[in-house]
Amino acid sequence: MRDNKNNKFPVVSFDFLYEAKEAYVNDTTSQVGFYTETTGDSFKGDRLPELWSKRLKETVQKGEALIFSISSSNTRTINSTAYRNYASPCASLHSP
Questions:
Q1: Using one digit for the tens of pLDDT, what is the confidence trace for 5-55?
Q2: Closest CA to 57 of 88, 96, 83
Q3: Ramachandran quadrant class, 7 (left: phi over 0; alpha: psi -120 to 50; beta: rest)
Q4: Which positions ≥6 away from 81 have C-beta within 8 Å?
Q5: What is the Cα 21 distance to its own chain's centre?
């Protein structure tokens, strides 16, 4: 993680949220719709556990969201960034 002066600080923990989109057909209108299923957790350190990383590489689809809220050793505030429109597989999932 870097500050506005480009100083590098280690990530001590982060919250992660994955928003999956699932298509469905409305029984009344026969129109296709989408619902969002959300999964997430809080992690210590600077990397997603291998199990999470592997599963995301297998399932993330274009248009879904990977959201990281990162806590650095230099500040008490949380830096939240949403990354959208990943195409599967996503090689950059090893670290936030």
A1: 888 888 888 889 899 988 899 999 999 998 899 999 999 988 899 999 999
A2: 88
A3: beta
A4: 67, 68, 70
A5: 13
